[in-house]
Design a protein that fits this description.
The protein is an alpha/beta fold. It contains 9 helices and 24 strands.
Length: 437
């Protein structure tokens, strides 16, 4: 009997478990294959919804579901923490002391926030004047912090290194502008977006579109700011080049790390505990029977649910190839697509891969209907519907009509260098309060 062990039952791990269970149903029924997925948490969180909690758009009841029903009935769910992995002996050690052997291991343990990596960040001001929104508890605390903000400087600070949902801090800036305007205090609050990058995004065309939006919303952008330490008592953040930014309320996206057990498995991870992975086949470098997917990898694409969804289609085939002793397909191109809420009932859609930055055009077909790199009400509707798509199709590992694992060039156009992208910013109109579906 072949044992497939999946570490982590977040978005990527759950998608893989469900896809492989359908693909291997005859083998599972005949007892030739068994599948196990390991995760300590009893609940699954719809993480893209956390951005709306500080603004009253969602409560936790909209974002949480029991983990069991999200996973295929033929996959055994073990609720335990992962203590260690030994690729040499093909075993994983769990927190209860059990040593679980495997024939194939898929690492899908995602990322964790590491605020402790920045000196001073988790001092006495943590969750009082310094907040995160990448966790449920942090987003709920931030809702209170924003409610108490009547003036001063709201600073959004992004830590260096790869983070999940890299557009989320920008979404927060856009939604904060709308929220504070609705509360009648926007003219007394300065919003400052502080990033270690040279612009709002590492993609040039996308960055120019974002710059137009941020300027239109009177959000000041500070670039090249790599946060070295935080002084909560003085309400200051300090960069490694000596610059200082003062805040009254700090919204931080802390450094990210992979799972702790990755550090103890020789050759498995990099310096931040992300699994060293072939970006095309999703096979881990450490050993041929180890694979990785989603936020847990060091693949150079955004750590978002859509990337995990597209990668899962390739990884499913490669696991089957491995079981049959066949060559793997180098077929994953880093495809990811993201809806970026920009406030006032509009959103922007970006679509890209390893080699192609976001471009204007239409999605998912050449004729559309959704516009790329441009705000629209249709994209906003798609953002609102994302929660339903997530539970109903993405998490079960179902394909989406017209959206393939590889990025399509049809419907996209490359802007000429220096093209004026003012049309990417839709005319402003008075927004309505964001309401969850």
């Amino acid at each position: 009997m072949r044992h497939i062990l999946i570490l982590g039952a977040g978005t990527a791990g759950t998608i893989m478990a469900n896809r492989l269970a359908r693909a291997l149903r005859p083998g599972l029924a005949a007892g030739k294959v068994r599948m196990t997925i390991v995760d300590p948490s009893p609940t699954h969180v719809f993480q893209p919804g956390l951005i709306f909690i500080p603004f009253g758009g969602y409560g936790r009841e909209k974002l949480l579901r029991d983990r069991g029903p999200t996973i295929d009935r033929d996959v055994r769910l073990v609720r335990s923490a992962i203590v260690a992995m030994d690729p040499e002996t093909d075993t994983v050690t769990l927190s209860d002391g059990e040593r679980m052997p495997y024939d194939i291991c898929i690492v899908a343990t995602g990322t964790r926030l590491a605020p402790e990596a920045t000196p001073g960040l988790m001092g006495a001001a943590w969750r009082h004047s310094i907040f995160d929104f990448y966790t449920l508890e942090g987003a709920e605390a931030l809702a209170y912090g924003l409610d108490c903000l009547t003036g001063g400087r709201l600073v959004i600070n992004v830590a260096p290194g790869p983070i999940k949902a890299p557009s989320a801090p920008l979404e927060f800036a856009f939604l904060a502008d709308e929220y504070l305007t609705r509360c009648g205090v926007r003219d007394r609050v300065e919003i400052v977006y502080v990033t270690p990058l040279d612009g709002p995004s590492s993609h040039a065309t996308y960055s120019r579109s974002l710059e137009r939006l941020l300027d239109a919303k009177d959000v000041r952008v500070v670039t090249g700011f790599s946060t070295e330490r935080v002084n909560g008592a003085l309400r200051e953040i300090h960069s490694d080049d000596g610059r200082t930014e003062r805040f009254d309320l700090l919204v931080t996206v802390p450094e990210h790390r992979g799972a702790d057990f990755v550090a103890t498995a020789a050759g498995l991870g990099d310096a931040r505990n992300f699994v060293r992975t072939d970006p095309r086949t999703l096979q881990a470098d450490v050993k041929p029977n180890v694979f990785a997917i989603g936020d847990a990898t060091d693949c150079p694409t955004d750590k978002v649910a859509s990337a995990a969804q597209h990668a899962a289609r390739v990884l499913e085939r490669n696991v089957l190839h491995y079981l049959r002793g066949e060559p793997l397909e180098p077929a994953f191109d880093g495809h990811a697509n993201t809806l970026v809420e920009t406030g006032r009932d509009r959103a922007m859609l970006v679509d890209f891969n390893y080699s192609t930055s976001p471009m204007p055009g239409r999605f998912p077909f050449a004729w559309g209907p959704a516009p790329l790199l441009r705000e629209s009400v249709l994209n906003h509707i798609g953002k609102l519907a994302a929660r339903h798509w997530y539970w109903g199709r993405l998490l079960p590992g179902r394909n989406f009509l017209g959206i393939g694992e590889q990025m399509k060039r049809a419907g996209k156009r490359s802007p000429r260098e220096g093209t004026d992208l003012r049309l990417a910013v839709a005319p402003r109109r008075r927004g309505t309060q964001w309401r969850a579906w």
